[in-house]
């Protein structure tokens, strides 16, 4: 069942994947690739026992309203501070903010967050994303490594094309000699349906 999605419309499965190939090491985990056989970070199911690079992610909610006049709504999930024709959404810490001016341009200033140290600010989609390269390991180690970083989990490729491209670029830049990378998707409960590691129904793929 190809239920893993990158957003409401798109998946990045290679043709013929997932194939749940059986053998000594059944393919129940999901990797992104950059090889000629797997161009552009396409997904494939692989054995959970192979060793691949680990990228951990922390994400926070962010909401931006359709009506630009309703400035307060842009701060859903954050504290609001107004001043000088603009306003600031406090990002879980008094020194970490998203500042948005009336023409709807925005800048992100994140000198201090509850994201674990050494995580890099990535981008804003419908969420605010931080990433960190965390070495290599088998899938179980990858999940536990990220979970050990507080709010983190294995990176989920679930926010559409721009996020997909960013994640692939991040992985390639931190692991240039590798051609496959762990993503936070698996079928370790053996129901032939891959799910993202946060366990939310909306993130099945």
Automatic annotation (TrEMBL):
Coiled coil: none annotated. Keywords: Disulfide bond. Residues 13-57 form the C-type lectin domain. InterPro entries: C-type_lectin-like (IPR001304), C-type_lectin-like/link_sf (IPR016186), C-type_lectin_CS (IPR018378), CTDL_fold (IPR016187). This is C-type lectin domain-containing protein. It comes from Darwinula stevensoni.
